[in-house]
Amino acid sequence: MRNFVINPDAVDEYEASAPFQRFMKVLIDDETFPGTPFTIALSRYPSGAGCPFHSHRDSSEVYFVLEGELVATVGGREYRVKRGELIYIPPPAEHRAENRGKETCRFMAINSPVGEDVTETKVRQAWKKVS
Predict the structure, then answer these.
(1) Which of 9, 51, 87, 123 has a Cα-to-Cα distance from 77 of 20 to 30 A?
(2) What's the CA gap between 13 and 7, in Å, rounded?
């Protein structure tokens, strides 16, 4: 029987290349649980890290901040998302996330449904494995 409990410490971490150097652990996706209609990833942004502007044609996205603070820009408007808060990003809104604070920001990124343009579906192929 498959183990449905996921320990993030046991999941491989991947690093995006500069200038958008950030880290991600894909916890749930179609590769870990075939047929799953969503992705959940644990993202780690050191101080100053961010992702480029992008959009998801058919997928909604949620960022839930676990540590630190995230600045999310959605549709041209900036939102400060603090520990314990989340932000909903509807499709196809152009958006980005960045850590402007001095402490590392950790957050969960959840996408549903999974489309070809969801970052988590490409991390294992495009990013460098660091653990």
Answers:
(1) 123
(2) 12
